[in-house]
Amino acid sequence: MYSKCQFGIALTTAIYLFLLLCIYLMGMLAISNIIHISDDSTWKGIITSLNEYSSVMNSIFIGGIGGSVYCLRAIYLNFSVFKKWDNDYLIWYLIRPILSLVIGGISYLFVKAGLVLFSSSEQYELNQLSLLSLSFLCGLNIDKFMKKLESIGEMVWGISPSNMGKTEGTKSE
User: Fold this and answer.
1) Taking a C-beta distance cutoff of 8 angstroms, is the pair 103, 138 a contact?
2) What digits encode the pLDDT tens for the residues 100-149?
3) Where are its TM segments located (predicted)?
4) Residue 130 in contact with residue 62, Cβ under 8 Å?
5) Is the CB of residue 113 less than 8 Å from the CB of residue 41?
6) What separation, in Å, do the N-terminal and C-terminal C-alpha atoms of the chain show?
């Protein structure tokens, strides 16, 4: 089966990802709780700033949660189901959730810039939930999101996709 070293690395990686999930969730809770502190506190300026940026910070954290969930699922599948654990992917397991944080923030940027639209509704809650859902999905599936970004860039600004965005079997210019 697996050596003790491989088992230890897989277990350590899973613990790392689980801890990242906990940190991301605690970060979201901390942001929402800090924002609701009374206005007469000495931290009013910081709280006001956090309130202004709470949506983007929540999008970043939700993107990280999506990436961590994806990695935990990959560990489960590769280690337990398919029995194909490979230590060469360790860097991927460590970096992917951090990259998902960045992608969660970028998804927020594209929605706020009007490059990704959900509906014409003006309801804040619907838009906020849609934004967080998109951030989760972008963190969960970075590759598809990057291809979508490249297609938006090509459509809006005429920027041709990178090699990552091109499908197999097509000629590159």
Assistant:
1) yes
2) 999 999 999 988 888 776 665 555 555 788 889 999 999 999 999 998 88
3) 7-35, 55-77, 89-111
4) no
5) no
6) 47
CB environment 72-97: b (16+ within 10 A), e (fewer): bebbeebbeeeeebeeebeeebeebb
Residue at token pair 């009013």: 44
| Number of Cα atoms under 13 Å in the Cβ half of residue 141 | 8
**Amino acid identity for residue 173 in this structure:** E
The chain-wide mean pLDDT, for the chain, equals 83
> CB burial class (10 A; 0-12, 13-18, 19+) of residue 139?
buried
For residue 165, what is the DSSP state? G
Is residue 23 scored above 70 in pLDDT?
yes
Condensed to tens digits (0 to 9), the pLDDT of residues 47-99 reads 677 777 888 999 999 999 999 999 999 999 999 999 998 989 999 999 999 99
Q: Name the one residue in this structure whose structure tokens are 């999101």.
A: 145
Other C-beta atoms closer than 10 Å to the C-beta of 155 total 10
Q: Quick one: which of 127, 131, 128, 124 has its CA closest to 63?
A: 131
Enter the tokens of residue 131.
């934004």
Place of tokens 């990552």: 164
Contacts of 144 (CB under 8 A, 6+ apart): none
